[in-house]
Specification:
Helix content is 35%, strand content 31%. The protein is α+β, with helices and mostly antiparallel strands.
Length: 414
């Protein structure tokens, strides 16, 4: 579709321009706003407070959730949002890990770390709306329904041309630093020739909420089987109904087959693969299906540029490690940029940005390897591999030191 472009607006200068107003971009803008007075947040979608969502009687109905590690919650506390989010989140006190047909299993507990929780599960929509409300009440400028059309790097700044879709006007901005967190289809790959590694994925995920016969007792479950990886995460009660969120990662063919099943038949497959630790599964909400994308940007920094979130590194979805990793990256970046500002350094120099990259490189590699390794270990089902896997699960469950190490990793302690 051709677009008639009107005249270019006068160029405006900012300290930082962020492209992508998802959870990562919104969180980043709020962490930066205290120290950097001119921040622009750009998104192709409409960024607004959804009044209908906040007035809903069931905040989790037909919505995906996200499991927040304790390291993420400490960062969210800095945004002054956690007190309200905690009221509508479900605590995760324990995580039970098992393989269908394996002898061993592991139960990780917050008690191991002298904590009251390993994390919390919260509706993605609720979290997003909390961030948007906070951004709207800050000095962060938001440009909605606008797409980046050109990026030009100069010696001291970056020039960004943006097409505002509502009026077909092109706006031009200068920034000391451009931060791209606009997802796996980021504009950096098209405009700047940034290369990415695409890891072939034959998986999709089905997500829904399940009504339970008995309480979940704030336990999250990670269950591996021949059919795929299944996570059951606590969500708050709807009136007196006990509920969990199901995320089931399956081969695409199987995901398509299961998506076409009746609710009754689908629930039977879930029950057969999970078992009866939570009693009988009684009812499900609407099923949502989404692709599993595994990719990594070959560059995550350039002079004047940072790539964050799924644009930088989209990993295998185990325990929401991807978002929790991204939030730690955000926190590391903000720390480095604040230090540079205090030292009166230009925040867009490669020297400053490389300090950030080196600070988070090890965490990113470990977290990516963790997800890939778990998927690989539990995808093999011959007798010898299953025996070794069972022994490994038993060893982690029996040996306190190993169990504590795994627990710490899961909550984001590196």
């Amino acid at each position: 579709m051709s677009v008639t472009i009107c005249q270019t607006a006068v160029t405006k200068a900012y300290d930082i321009v962020i492209v992508g107003a998802g959870l990562v971009g919104l969180s980043l803008s709020l962490l930066l706003k205290q120290d950097f007075k001119s921040i622009l947040l750009i998104d192709k979608r409409k960024v607004e407070v959804d009044i209908t969502s906040s007035n809903s009687t069931d905040l989790y109905l037909n919505k995906k959730s996200i499991a927040l590690s304790m390291s993420s919650i400490e960062i969210i506390r800095q945004l002054d949002l956690w007190n309200e989010l905690e009221k509508v989140a479900a605590k995760i006190e324990k995580v039970h890990v098992s393989g269908n047909g394996d002898v061993g299993s592991v139960l990780l507990s917050a008690c191991e770390l002298d904590q009251k929780a390993l994390g919390y599960n919260v509706s993605t929509a609720i979290f997003s709306q909390s961030l948007i409300k906070s951004v709207k009440n800050s000095q962060v400028e938001v440009l909605s329904e606008s797409s980046v059309e050109n990026i030009i790097f100069k010696k001291e700044h970056v020039e960004i041309e943006v097409l505002q879709t509502q009026n077909s006007r092109v706006a031009s901005f200068n920034s000391k630093l451009l931060i791209m967190c606009d997802g796996v289809d980021s504009k950096v790959f098209d405009f700047l020739g940034v290369q990415k590694s695409d890891f072939e994925s034959d998986y999709e995920a089905i997500s829904t909420n399940i009504d339970l016969q008995q309480p979940h007792q704030n336990i999250a479950y990670q269950r591996f089987s021949k059919k795929g990886h299944m996570a059951l995460l606590p969500i708050p009660k709807d009136k007196q109904t006990n509920r969990v969120e199901l995320v089931w990662v399956l081969k695409k063919k199987l995901a398509n087959e299961f998506s076409s099943l009746s609710d009754e038949d689908f629930l039977k497959y879930v029950q057969d693969n999970f078992g009866y630790r939570l009693g009988v599964f009684e009812k499900i909400d609407q099923r949502l299906k989404f692709p599993i994308i595994r990719q990594q940007s070959m560059e995550q920094i350039r002079n004047g540029l940072v790539i964050l979130g799924n644009a930088a590194n989209s990993i295998y979805p185990i325990g929401a490690q991807g978002f929790n990793l991204a939030l730690r990256d955000v926190n590391n970046l903000v720390t480095v940029l604040k230090s540079a500002l205090t030292a009166k350094k230009h925040i867009g120099t490669f020297e400053v940005l490389d300090e950030y990259y080196q600070s988070k490189k090890n965490d990113q590699e470990l977290t990516t390897c963790f997800g890939d390794s778990l998927e690989s270990i539990f995808s093999h089902h011959n007798l010898h591999v299953r025996a070794l896997r069972s022994l490994g699960l038993l060893a982690i469950d029996i040996v306190p030191f190993l169990r504590k190490k795994v627990t710490k990793f899961g909550v984001g302690v590196r």
